[in-house]
Amino acid sequence: MRKIWLHRLLLSYLPVFILFVCLFMFIGIIQLNSLSRQDAVKSSRAFAENLQNNLDMSLRSIEMMMIGTITRNSTLTSFAGMESSPEFIIDLSQLLQSMVSTNSLIDSIYVYRAGDGTIVSDQTKLSVDQFADRAYAEAGLNAQSSVWSDPRTFRVFAGGERKETVVSMTQSIPLGSRGIAILVVNVSMGGIRDYFDSFGQSGVSELSVADRNGEAVFGQSAALTGKAPVSLTSAYSGLTYRSELKTSVSGNLYEYITSGWVMFGLLGLLIGIWWVVYISRRNYKPIESILSRIQTYNEQHRNSFLREPIGDELRYIDYTLSNMIEATQDYEHRDREHARLRRLRLFRELLEGGGTVGEAEWSEAMSGLGGGGTFAGAAVSLIEIDQYSAFIGGYSHEDQGLFKYILTKVVEETARTHSLRIWQEWATNHRLCVIVLSESEEERVQASRRILAHAEEVREWLQNHLKLTITWGIGSSVTEVGDISKSCESAVRALDYKSALGSNRVIGHWEIEDLASGDLFVYLQYVRTIAQAFRVGSEDWKEQLGLLFAGLRSLLLPREEIDGVLIYMNYFFLREMTELPPEYQEIWNREFRERWEERMDSLETLDELEAFYSDRLTACFSRMKSLREERGNHAAVRRVREYIERNFHNPDLSLTLLGEKFQMNTSSLSTLFKEEFGEKFVAYLCQVRMEHAKDMLRNGSLPINEIAGRVGYQHPMSFIRTFKKMVGVTPGDYRKVHQP
């Protein structure tokens, strides 16, 4: 076979290698050129800004000198005041000469007085009619503000030969006045150009300066094109500075290519090409050796599945190995998958019951567990993860899988230390089913004790190391394979008592088999009383709620029956709340009903349920109490209610009596009761009397007739009928249940 793969390697690596090297060199050149240009632009901008700032500072110093002289020197003020003596004019001219000498940019200075048209400069004195700059001077008398003028031509005498291009600054004398006198300073444009000639030369950029009208002050190219990369305009002087990079800075590709570093890079490229060829040939030798052995084997086994395909060497090797590995792996995978599925199906059949397990099938499953096929007994345990809704909400899917894997490994390892042979599978997402198998009668007898110790060890390890709690239900021991489903049923029933017995513990089947069935109906009587007391705003509901949950604990009910009691209580609360105004119902729905729907699946034990009911009902009760107190008629209703509590035994107690007592209309009083307590006065009075009657029945031995009279009933039969209607049992039956 030709060395096709070697040639492909070379054709694959070399172009890519050369391309990347050239690309990196090109990127390096472009990047270097770009960085150089950016640095040049920054330098050019800084250079132009420096020139602008220096010139603006010079012009500002001239302006400040003008203002300072006008302010501090009385000579100029006297001139504005029409002083004209020869000695004064000489002093004034000398003052102007001294001002000219302060800055090399100043060409000339003169003052102009409008009163008599006198012009005094640093060189002479003349009238305004003789002055060539008369138009600018007269315009400056009424100027709104003082700014530097555009470049202009300045002459002293109208027919004079000497003229100068200047920019001028005018200041009124005195400052802030108009039409009296002005001081004019002329700055020579020649001096400004000399400044740019001296300081405006750069090896990086070409500078040009233009005035407000775009006329070139210094340089030409940038001022004409207007496309310079750096353009600055002075808000003070009005000059625009433009800077263009010189051609040499933009980079010359030929210079980069012919530089020593590029030549060094080309040499490295050649060395790299040689190295790629050398390494490719060296690494190809093992392929040649493998190919030779496969060809030899193929020639010796011409009838085998190995054939020489059309293509290169690696495809030939891949074809050969793929066929060999695929055949082996496919067989092993199918065998493992089938064994796993058969074992899982058998496991579910054992738990569900109803099927017949063959001896061969049982032996295969036991061999997968590493034991023999002898069966002497079995016991099923169910491990349930506590607070599973919080568990799946607090951990990601991957973390949940990790926790479950650790749980199965802990169960497996601890079972080995207790000499237990187990078969475990996940029955549901939160329940792990463990079948403990016994191969002898002795193992079966000791299995219960070992399972209990095993369960406690696993539970404590998970709690201490993973902060994960579980509840372990242990089923009964059976001696027949077909009865394993019965053991599973007893384990499930043990877990059903998790709500009553508590979570994070081990519950054995023997604990629930001997439980005495209590009278649940007795404690259901508290439900109506709790809901009614809550509705009318009585604090008695808290005590009644505690008695209800205490009774549920004493009965040790499974979760299904506990759920039934809670559904029954929620129904009564809902019915009572519908009797109240909408704002009370809204508080109930927000503070209790919505929270219950969110938490009902995560509350597993009676302690958690009682804490939830107590917390949410207390919050709801407080909000409803605050709402009642905010109403304007709350004080009146409270006084009426207190009066009823003190006089409930009065058989003549009625709305009419209360209306006369509190000077209220009976219709208004009835409406207040309905709004405040959600029921009519008669129903409220009956409830108060029944609560006191129940207290007397529970805590005393008075006859029924006497109790009837003490709670306001003249006829005992009326009392008995009312009591049975509201409580559900007769007073006598109630006393039998609640008295020891």
Automatic annotation (TrEMBL):
Instruction: Kindly state which keywords UniProt assigns to this record, in alphabetical order.
Output: DNA-binding, Membrane, Transcription, Transcription regulation, Transmembrane, Transmembrane helix
Q: Which PROSITE patterns match?
A: HTH_ARAC_FAMILY_2
Question: Has keyword Transmembrane?
Answer: yes
Residue ranges occupied by any HTH araC/xylS-type domain in the UniProt entry: 638-737
Q: Which SMART domains match?
A: HTH_ARAC
Q: InterPro entries annotated for this entry?
A: CdaR_GGDEF (IPR041522), Homeodomain-like_sf (IPR009057), HTH_AraC (IPR018060), Tscrpt_reg_AraC-type_HTH (IPR020449)
User: Where are the bilayer-spanning segments?
Assistant: 12-32, 256-277
An MF annotation (GO) of this entry: sequence-specific DNA binding
Note the PANTHER family from the entry.
Answer: ARAC-FAMILY TRANSCRIPTIONAL REGULATOR, HTH-TYPE TRANSCRIPTIONAL REGULATOR EXSA
Q: What is this protein called?
A: Helix-turn-helix transcriptional regulator
